[in-house]
Amino acid sequence: MSHENHQLGPQENSPDVQQLKEAFGLFSRASGELIHAYSDLQKQLATLSAQLEMANLALASQSAQRASLAERLALLLDALPAGVVELAADGTVLRQNPAAQDMAGADWTGLDWAQVSAAMTPADVGDAWLLPSGAAPREVIVEQRPLPDGSTIVLLHDISRQQALARQLADQERLVAMGQMAASLAHQLRTPLATAMLYTANLAREPLGREDRERFAGKALDRLRQLEGLIRDTLGYVRGEAFELHDVAVADVLDEVEHAVLAGARARAVTFACRQDTGVTRVRADARALVSALVSLIENAFAYSSPGSEVSLAVRRGEAGVEFAVSDQGPGVPAEIASRIFEPFFTTRSEGTGLGLAIAARVAQQQGGQLRLDARHAPGACFVLSLPLADD
């Protein structure tokens, strides 16, 4: 036995055996490291799996929320009273909500929007359009909103009912105005008519000298002329006028106005003066209507002016165009009636018709301007009629 042990000792210490031991050690360490790495990978995989599961759950929740939101938006779109039309980038109608289909009375899906819009015609109100729909067209406001993807959303607002109600209200207001006008006209006619009847009754008295007869006849004629003027002004106010607007020379307007009012100024011993800024030469207006309105304002100023005072017409450049300012040195307009002076038939003079300012205000308004009382002017009153400047 001792002999055999003596033979194995050198083999265990041989280089080959030593290398095997070292290799086995390396393998053992590598195996340990692999096992440790595998354990780490398993832990990381478990963490990633948990994170992935959480992400999937969040994604599913978001998807469900988006689906719910899309469903709610679809329900809201269907419930909207306004019409909604979706257009593709090439203008093809992709879909429309029930309100749009109700307005159209047809399904536009697949049609070219240019073809659809070509069938619409401008309405009488602002930016509204008449949309063919069954027996009666709809009045709609059309708005377009482009989307980032190139598509377009078209919104249709049906204002047919609002416009019908507005027209009914306007009709009722006209009826009320007609009733008020008839009552005011009857009141205005009563005084000159009663006076004329009184004077004509005096003509039948006996004995009546020639001088008295001529005096009564003249006064009766004056009252009848007042009646005729009242009826003429009333008809002019009720009918209105169609104005023809042109570029008018301000100097020509002032010449006509001055020629028309000088006799009245002399009769009342009032000085009349015209003043024109050098930078204002032309105005956009109907010359005849403008002259008539200015003469009416000036004669109104004469009626409230004392002998020796001055009535002036000043033409100047205003914020919105040309201003024609008629000023007097009379008592002015009391604050308590200032809000009513442009009402038809409102007057503080027994011989007035109450239509002069109302007609002048309408003339200004229908020519794109306005008539206002300048409350800052004192003493007296100042009425400012403004109109647009002439085109360059």
TrEMBL record:
InterPro entries assigned: BphY/WalK/GraS-like, HATPase_C_sf, HATPase_dom, His_kinase_dom, HisK_dim/P_dom, HisK_dim/P_sf, PAS, PAS-like_dom_sf
Domain (Histidine kinase) ranges: 184-391
GO cellular component: membrane
Keywords (A to Z) from UniProt: ATP-binding, Kinase, Membrane, Nucleotide-binding, Phosphoprotein, Transferase, Transmembrane, Transmembrane helix, Two-component regulatory system
Reactions catalysed: ATP + protein L-histidine = ADP + protein N-phospho-L-histidine
PROSITE patterns in the record: HIS_KIN (PS50109)
GO BP term (any one): osmosensory signaling via phosphorelay pathway
EC number: 2.7.13.3
CDD domains noted in UniProt: HATPase, HisKA
Cellular compartment(s): Membrane
GO molecular function: ATP binding; phosphorelay response regulator activity; phosphorelay sensor kinase activity; protein kinase activator activity
Membrane-protein topology: Multi-pass membrane protein
Protein name, per record: histidine kinase
